Amino acid sequence: MPPPCVARTPPPMSRKYVVGICAMEKKTKSKPMQEILRRLNKKKHFDLVVFTDDMILRQPVDAWPVCDALLSFYSTGFPLEKAESYVHLRRPVLVNDLSMQHILFDRRKVYEVLIRNGVNVPRHAIVNRDGPTPDILEESENHVIVNGVQINKPFVEKPANAEDHNIYIYYPTSAGGGSKRLFRKVGDRSSEFYPDVNQVRREGSYIYEEFLNTQGTDVKVYTVGPNYGHAEARKSPVLDGRVMRDSVGKEVRYPVILNSVEKDIARKVCLAFQQTVCGFDLLRVRGTSYVCDVNGWSFVKNSKKYYDDCGLVLHNYLLNALRYRSTRARPATSPRYPMSPSFSPPDPSLILQPENNEPAARDTPTNPPNLSSSHSSDPFDNSPANFGSPSFTHMSRTSSNASVEDLHWHEKKEELRAVIAIVVCTLEQRHGDRTPKQKLKTRVWASAFVDFYEKRRTKDKFDEVKVKAVKDLQELLDIVRNLIKEYAPNVGSKGAVWEKDGGDSFEKLLQIKRVLERWKFAGINRKVQFKPRREYMPPSSSSGANSELLLIMKWGGDLTETGKRQGEQLGNRFRNELYPVEEGGLLRLHSTFRHDLKIFTSDEGRVQMTAAAFAKGFLELEGDLTPILVSLVTTLDKDANKMLDHSGQADANEEIEKTKAKMRKLMHKEYSSADEFISAAAPLSTKSIVEALRKIQFPLESLRKLHDLIKLVKTEIKELGAETEKNAILLSDPTINEVYMGETLSLVSERWEKLYRDFYSAQKQEYDLSKIPDIYDCIKYDMLHNFHGALVLKHGRLLFELAECFVTCYVPQEYGLLGMDTAEKQSIGIKVSQALCAKIRSDIAMAMTITHEETAAVVNSAIGYSGKSFLPLCTDDPEEMDCLEHNGYRLDPSFAKELRIKSPGTQVRTRLYFTSESHMHTLLNVLRYQCPTWNERVAAAMRAPCSPQRSAIVPDEEEVTNRLLNQMGIGKIPGDGPNKALYELDPSKLNTPEALAALDNVTELDYLAHITIRVFEQPWLLEDDEHRFRVEIAFSPGVRGDPETNEIQRSASTSSMSSAGFGGPSPPSTPTTLSSSLPIAIPASAFLEKKDSIEIDHLYQPDNKIYLTNNMPGAMFDDMLATCIASAANTANIPDSV
């Protein structure tokens, strides 16, 4: 054995280099390692020596085999220091540096190295408890503060010890609270949700970092040197914790394409940690990529192509490095690590060229340009395709230059390009099927309340204080309990302090107690506000007697279990009926990263929860909604919120108030006959409105009747409450007084008492029509959930039917009086939905954009790929970073054959928008009536029917759309917009007469009403053919059903729908009529076997949905939207007179 200080003699070319593999047998005998070693051995340049566990653990290092190069890495039980001693003794060429592997044990040090090398990491703070002076962590309900750095929930809590894989995620109360625990995979589970665990761990050192929403995707990058990386994506364990496995039990991952920034990150990670073979976790969020973990030695499992690539890269690197060292005869006293910046370049003549008699390392030889210059000295220069980014053309989409003979279709079949859905989950303040929202106001002056306010108000300001935190609500409840004990003996006496506020203050105090005690402090829909009176003075002042506050308590609005099931079932039906069923349907499309999904909601908690329920059914997820909400649902910020919430009405508020004033005038007028009323309120004879008005007959008389029915119902409920309260006392069982979701009959009674009081103003002698939706909501909710079966309201049915009539003729009219003319509908419609229309137009334009980088050849995935992609695989444009519409990961098509994916080029874009009823009404009005400018164009086209139309979008109109998108943080219309084909401007393709008639029959928009817009392409047609893209628009008014349907009918309804993808019947305590009669806006035949032409207009149309159109040219729809968006600022004023 030569002494270590003597330089090695260059081996004769006939002698093979000795490459040692020093790792635990569990790793060296694994399939990935065996595949790589087999490929290294196949090249005939190396003798491979695999160290056994017995040798590594028991024999001294001077007895270990002498090696020219060493593959060595840590895993559980591996003596890293001992291996380092061997390296110091023998000085072999190292594939992965051993000393740097110590850093990988500590996540804090890993982040230090990443930051030092210019790699983005999530914003974080570190709690060190392993030093002499442990850091102090301040914990609040929705954030932690460490060394002055505040990290808000949701945040991730990672142990500093990288060997500890128990990572926790904590969620904010606004999303429902709780925490998710991630752990090493156990069977088919990788995480569990704990709804009641909200406190962080207090022992050990941790990193607290902001949770980054990656749309439910985790990506691991596997490098083999700085110029090669393979990226694989999987469903994030944060979503539902269910591990998807393949036929051999391996977790399912799919190769995806990295952008140039991420390739540079991979290079930096590889060099910074001096680990040639290295795995790390990558997060892409709004166009910016972050590294959140570095694992060290990692191989891809189950990929022949990766094994071929890795074997070739390692072979070339080892041979080049060993020949270079042999030629230079470097002294063995100076170990050279391959990743070291001081590494000198090898002679270019020594770069290995493949030998003719050696088998190809890949199925298809590729020699793409390297990331570095062509004269790079890197020993990895002969790597195969860098970072899994081969050029290719989508097999399912070509430019017009491609000949039909080039296509591999056996039959022509149109392809789905985009699905856009707008779903209503707030109905005039109602959110899916939810508990009624309620509010209580009372004046308080007790010192305990005042002190409570004083501790929380801003210093030197007498501002409003909002109380939502669990600790604060509990303190408030204790104050209320103590005050009730103190004042209860004197209630009713003349001088009682609680009689000061008109005699009901003590009763309100009892109600506050009931609300605070009824449900645990974990909901997201309960808060208390304290507002100082105008004359308020703090107790410390000389005029402390004026320390009086207004206490406002708001509660309710919780999405019910029925509401959650409705959302989940709708998602389920979307998945099964709106997407192609070939190759495993939507789930296969989504899991293989050929489905670009984004879900947008406003910042309203209940809307977000409905969207999460939908996503659960849509992607067939399991478990609680909170992790799904935080991981998949994008909440719009202030600038973009107007797209979906009520702030979008700001520009139209004046006109909306005018229409409400007209309705008030019409409803409070005396008429000589019902026909006179109908003629005044609906001169255009809209069917649904006329039918509702005919039932109302005389509006003022019917409003009095409605008020009287409320009185009768509240009296019934009060009597029922008194009876059950007696039984509760007799049986010592307070739950007897409870109805659905923990509400008590006394609280239900108080709800109706308030409605009765607020609906009519004796002073004004006027009915408040704005309360009509609340009345309808409450009676519908109570009949559905509280008063059915044995507990029935005698007058409930009459109240429901009359309230329904008023809702039918009142609510839609707020957005323009349909009975008068269409001018108001157009004006209000385009103003309220302008931002949403701009976003929809952007989605449609992206789906229809064809770039001219496409090549004529479209090749079958079994053969390979050539040419360029028709869409950008990623964005490197700095202007598009931090954009809501950043590009997600896409399948690497070079692995399609191995993964048995027949159509790797298929890309479907899905955008789901969960919004309010106001946006649904106004968007429907835009789709139905468009705008005056567009109507003039249609009229002109009708006068010259033989003249085809070309897009009339002028730069100013395009600028309006792009300006709106930029204001909302969304990228502009892609490129020059979609291809502008000639098209015939046929109004019947915009709205069919049958569709308009069907819309007239819609009485109301109910829970989960929705519009679906789908874009289809016939890719064999020329680019300028108007039929290449068609747009299909369908509408569903939402769930249907009678809340008083008996149990037999409920069961029959549930059974009849189960064949359409619904689950089994709901628990008997919850009526299921509405949830089981859920229409969906879908086509009868979702995907058509296409010939050159087909009469789409004559397809069978099911009666539970309305098709506005199913054959509109895409260019025509784009023109119409652009024109309406631009016309919003130029809408003519509407006259005030009725």
UniProtKB/TrEMBL annotation:
Instruction: Write out the biased-composition intervals (Low complexity).
Output: 363-384, 1051-1060
Q: Which GO terms describe its cellular component?
A: cytosol
Q: Does the keyword Glycosyltransferase apply?
A: no
Q: Which UniProt keywords apply?
A: Acetylation, ATP-binding, Cytoplasm, Kinase, Nucleotide-binding, Phosphoprotein, Transferase
Region described as Disordered: spans on this chain: 330-396, 1038-1075
Q: Where in the cell is it found?
A: Cytoplasm, Cytosol
Q: Which family does it belong to?
A: Belongs to the histidine acid phosphatase family. VIP1 subfamily.
| Full protein name | Inositol hexakisphosphate and diphosphoinositol-pentakisphosphate kinase
Name the species this protein comes from. Answer: Thraustotheca clavata
Q: What is the lineage of its organism?
A: Eukaryota, Sar, Stramenopiles, Oomycota, Saprolegniomycetes
